[in-house]
Amino acid sequence: MMSKLPIGIQSFERLRKEGYLYIDKTGYIQKLADAGSVYFLSRPRRFGKSLLVSTMEAYFRGQKELFQGLAIEEWENRKPEQERWVEYPVLKFSLSGGFYGTDDGLEQILAYTLRSFEEEYKIPQFEELWKKQYGVADFERTAEKQNGALNLRATLPVWLKYCIEKAYGLTGKPVVFLCDEYDKPLLENISVDAEQEERNRSLFKSFFSILKDEDRYLKFVFITGVTKFSKISIFSDLNQLKDISLLPKYSAICGITEQEMCESLSGELDSMAESLGMSREETSLELARMYDGYHFSAGGEGVYNPFSLLNALTDGNCGRYWFETGTPTYLVNALRHSGMPVSDLSSGITATEGRISSFRADDTDMVPLYYQSGYLTIAGYDRKFRTYTLSFPNDEVKYGFLESLIPMASPAYRVADSAFSAQRMTGYLQDGSREAIDAFMTMLQALLASIPYHEGKAPADEQQWRNVVYAVFAVLGQYVKAEVHSALGRSDCVVENNQYVYIFEFKHDKTAAEALKQINENGYAAPYASCGKKIVKVGANFSTAKRTLDRWEVQE
To answer: What one-character-per-residue DSSP string does 405-464 give?
Structure first.
């Protein structure tokens, strides 16, 4: 039986009223609500954070008709009757929309939400009371006080305090504070306008600090975002904040588990298998290869990317849905300037919990941002040393990221050739003639030549062209067997198809002959001697002066 799949729907009320499929996550809300603390959750974009917050909003508003048949309904029914489906005042900030590149962008969104909250709960308007007290005609721009100018920015924390306390007084119920995608105003500016990012961060620090002293008036606090910025910069005053992002019991609070997929999407799996001419098992394996693999805790349950999985089941095809909704220009640019070998992202990065739990805007370490954004995930955990191993979660992310790296690192090539063509390069290697090999190397030469260099930095950019070379061969690994090595004593890359084994070695400011000599002297071809395929050795040299490959030699 097929269901209406809720692609892009973030409203729990709409989802339930219009009959869309809902994979029950209310048991997690029950656990959180029962403890009644101040929580923070980090998850990648389009992973269901907004729907989770919307579900919390409906629950704390007492909209019991929306929860029929869900786990939390049974939990509520076990309570004494007077304690069931209690309605609390809900103050919800949704920051995924809006423009935050101006001085008052964030201020206006926060002010709009507070005004709406006052109207909903019949709270006397804070603005009018302020104007009356201080005789200010234009509250939005300035409010003069004896000790200096007090503008909207400085007023917002006081306004928040006022709304929480007045709502508590008028309803007799503590307030539920929800903030979805709090970090959008920060990430939007982090690589564009550092001063604006700092202004938004400073406002958040004073705004969130109010929650600490309002504890007696608060029932529940839940804040979500892609990235958890360092506590020192934003959440330092909110020291009761409980970060559940890495806790195993909440690892599947967002996303879709294997069991949830098989139980709730069985009809869709069968339909997709039929359209692809594959068995259900083969289809499940293909979906897992593309979209599974996310782990948000050590030993916690793995999940599929919900946005990509639902799109694939709807279309009957495995596309790169999540990756294509937001090309990570900032992440790729950050990688280019960080000096990090892109091979580290594939082979695995070792990191402590502290390293992946928070991100500082002024830090050159991009690992926490790559992890929290969903481009890396937990692949292993060493309990003795309490360190995590991070790697790409699946093929959608791995190949989407690597393919985006090539044109972004080589913009001139992108203009000249429209896009990186793995199909063409794979075809050259399938051909195997000397002309085809030369065409392959010429294409690689053009890619490297288009990498922008900055004055005085050419030697340091060696890592950048190595990253492009790595990305090219890693992407080819989708179509042929390609291994890129970085350890001493092994060739730089081996590409294998039905007829040929290509062994590549690259030198820097030396000669192609030296590269070829290293292949022969170190016996890189020996493991393939009995495979029955033709072995082709390619030695090449990267020239700093020419800023690309200058020569290559081929030996069969």
So the answer is: HHHHH-HHHHHHHSS--HHHHHHHHHH-SHHHHHHHHHHHHHHHHTS---TT-TGGGHHH
| CA distance linking residue 291 with residue 302, whole number of Å | 11
If pLDDT is split at 50, 70 and 90, which confidence band does 143 have?
A: very low
The amino acid at residue 343 is: S
Do residues 396 and 320 make contact, with C-beta atoms less than 8 angstroms apart? yes
Whether residue 88 contacts residue 176, with contact meaning beta carbons closer than 8 Å, is answered with yes
Cβ neighbour number for residue 455 with a 10 Å cutoff: 5
**Which DSSP letter does residue 301 get?**
P
**Neighbour count for residue 478 (Cβ, 10 Å):** 14
The Cα 73–Cα 82 span in angstroms is: 15
- Residue 137: helix, strand or coil by DSSP? coil
Give CA separation, 187 vs 179, 183, 359, 518, in Å. Answer: 16, 6, 11, 46
Q: Rounded CA gap, 281 and 289, in Å?
A: 12
The model's pLDDT over 38-80, given as tens digits with 9 standing for 90+, comes to: 999 999 999 999 999 999 999 999 999 999 999 999 999 999 9
Q: What is the Cα Rg of the chain in Å?
A: 28
Give the model confidence (pLDDT) of 380-413 as tens digits.
Answer: 999 999 999 999 999 999 888 887 777 666 655 5
Tokens representing residue 411 in the block = 């913009």
Provide the pLDDT for residue 456.
44
Q: What predicted TM-score, i.e. pTM, was given to this entire model?
A: 0.86
The pair phi, psi for residue 289, each rounded to 5°, is -60, -35
Q: CA-CA distances (angstroms) from residue 147 to 126, 159, 350? A: 20, 19, 52
What pLDDT score was predicted for residue 337? 65
Q: What is the dihedral angle through the alpha carbons of 468, 471, 472, 474, rounded to the nearest 10 degrees?
A: 160
How far, in Å, CA of 7 to CA of 166, rounded?
A: 38
- pLDDT score at 455: 47
Q: Poorest-confidence range of 10-14, 112-116, 119-123, 445-449?
A: 445-449
Q: Which residues pair with 483 in a beta bridge?
A: 494
Kindly list the structural domains of the chain, giving each domain's residue range(s) and its CATH number in brackets, ordered by start.
22-245 (3.40.50), 258-324 (no CATH), 329-395 (no CATH), 410-555 (3.40.1350)
